[in-house]
Amino acid sequence: MTHPDLPPLRLDPATLALLRDDLAAAGYTADAVRGAWGARADDAIGHGLAGPALRALEGRVDPLSVLARALFLGAAASVADVDAALPSCGARGLVALGLATIDGDTLVPSVLVRPQDFDDESGAGHWWIASDLDETALLLRGGDGALPTDHVLGVGGASLTLASLQLPEPADRVLDIGTGCGIQALRARHSARRVVATDVSERALAFTGLNALLNGVECIETRHGSLFAPVSGELFDRVVSNPPFVITPRGSGVPAYEYRDAGFAGDDLVAAFVREVGTVLAPGGIAQLLGNWEYRGDTDGLDRVRGWVDESAVALDAWVIERERLDPLAYAEMWVRDGGTVVGTPQYARLVEAWLADFDARGVTAIGFGYLLLRRPERGAKPAFRRFERVTQPVPGALGPHLRDALRTADLLADLDDGDLARSVLTTAPDVTEARHHLPGQEGPRVIELRQGGGLARTIEVDPGLAALVGACDGDLPVGRLIDAIAELMEVDPLALAAELLPRVRELVFTGFLRLP
After folding, report:
1. Sheet holding 447-452, edge to edge
2. ∠ CA(285), CA(286), CA(288), 5° rounding?
3. Fewer CB within 10 Å, N side or C side of the chain?
4. What is the DSSP letter of 99?
5. Which pLDDT score is estimated for 200?
6. Is 305 helix (H, G, I), strand (E, B) or coil?
7. Which DSSP category does 71 fall into?
8. CA angle (484 as vertex; 479, 490 as ends), nearest 5
């Protein structure tokens, strides 16, 4: 099922500027909308239930309420009310842009236009993001909620995650592969002079162009095509991608949604991306993406990703973080529901069974999800940084600044031998706390933990010697002097203690528990 009957999007800068002014004048922001219908209704929307929000707005004709009903929820509205809410653009302007149709005295939205907050090192702000009607809006129209296969997704959890991962570093050119509604391109433009956004969906590219104009953002160029074909021969300082990585059975009767399925078998899409991205990275350039990878038989999923990096057309540094692992049944059920297929129906059972059969054919035992950061070394340098790890705890705030700082620290550490590190004066990061766990009646702690309040919110178990060292890193004495003092207190050989602690100190510096000058 596709979108054959929807009006085409029209990228008219003048009309979009009028719409932008009207949305701003109406105070159409995420916080204002949440305040208009209240916390309970807002929670319900997160569960796909629009009824509480519609009831909260019932009978209200102020501009914010009209826009929240029509543009956020996709509900039909009076043309007169829309004209009053958008005095410059008006209902006819929405129709001219392909955002709505008019049936008599009623405006029927064709797409959603939702406010989206952002907050990064350049400051806080918001965008308005247009995308296709979601399953909740389709249900309001009397449909079954199933999404068309050419559906262009709005801002979801995965896209927000990737946006928060983007490095807040100045760049000349950034490539956004699989741009969808354009949220990553907008985010990248904050620190990049130019952005090229690509997609296999012409409709997605139209949304990206429309959203750039609606938000007054220039220098975002859209190109049609798959993976790296639209930019063959070009180099970029950064590449960012929330690709259609969802593992989908290749069989008749299984919907192939463009926003999540690129037509590859298994995890071949992510493998192809990792192997080829180095060809479009400038020296020192960095690629960031989200992805899935399969665990097959006794083969660890992260080992498979390591193999893809080893097979890259251009040698790369790599940092891969697995955030979640699902068994095949849980994975199948999640993505069948994502397409709007209702639990308990024959179609639901048939699709889940198709997924399970596909996994069984490859011996898949689990599916990992996580973040990949790949860097092309500077000219003349060899890859020096490889890290594949699992970090499953919740993390506070945007990770982009932490990833940037960790990469800088890794480069500094690469130039320090153990002697250099022992001569370094370190400080304990201000977000680090210590927890000691005692058994009843025992004087000494059974377990000592260091906890990180920011970054990846790591918790690590340490022994008394390392705990003492971290506690003493106040920017006064070098690490070697501190180790000597601790060895004297513990009555152990200082050389043996240094050999034990320095590799662990190196890890604590990289992860952000300790800081170099």
Report:
1. 432-437, 447-452, 459-462
2. 155
3. C
4. S
5. 94
6. helix
7. I
8. 120
Residue whose tokens read 């083969």: 299
Tell me the per-residue pLDDT of 276-309, one tens digit each, with 9 for 90 and over. Answer: 999 999 999 999 999 999 999 999 999 999 999 9
Beta bridge partners of 20: none
DSSP state of 382: P
Mean pLDDT of 371-392: 94
- Quote the CA–CA distance of 88 and 72 in Å, as a whole number: 19
DSSP 299: B
Q: How many CA atoms within 13 Å lie on the side-chain side of 450?
A: 26
Closest CA to 400 of 160, 126, 127: 160
Residue 144 CA, distance from chain mean position: 29
β-bridge mates for residue 320, sequence order: 372, 388
- What is the number of other CB atoms lying within 10 angstroms of the CB of residue 137? 19
**DSSP element (H, E) containing 286:** strand 281-296
Task: Identify whether the C-beta of residue 243 lies closer than 8 Å to the C-beta of residue 292.
Answer: no
Which residue's structure tokens are 């009053």? 84
Q: How far apart are CA 398 and CA 165, in angstroms?
A: 6
Residue 6 confidence (pLDDT): 78
Strands 386-390 and 236-241, sheet pairing: unpaired
Q: Tell me if 66 sits within 8 A of 82, measured CB to CB.
A: yes
Q: Where are the beta strands (DSSP E) in 312-445?
A: 317-326, 364-375, 386-390, 427-428, 432-437
How buried is 416 (Cβ within 10 angstroms: 0-12 exposed, 13-18 middle, 19+ buried)?
A: middle
Residue 321: in which H helix or E strand, if any? Answer: strand 317-326
C-beta atoms surrounding 177 within 10 Å: 25
Helix 494-511 with 464-472: angle, nearest 10 deg: 60
Distance CA 268, CA 271 (A): 5
pLDDT in tens, 351-373: 999 999 999 999 999 999 999 99
Q: How many other C-beta atoms can be found within 10 angstroms of the C-beta atom of residue 393?
A: 10
For 55-71, the pLDDT digits (tens) are 999 999 999 999 999 99
Write the burial class of residue 123 (CB in 10 Å: 0-12 exposed, 13-18 middle, 19+ buried). exposed
Estimate to the nearest angstrom the gap between the alpha carbon of 467 and the chain centroid.
Answer: 34
What length does the chain have?
Answer: 517
Sequence-ordered strand ranges (E) for 200-276: 220-224, 236-241
Q: Specify the DSSP element, H or E, that contains 283.
A: strand 281-296
pTM of the predicted model, to two decimals? 0.93
Tokens of 36: 């208009």
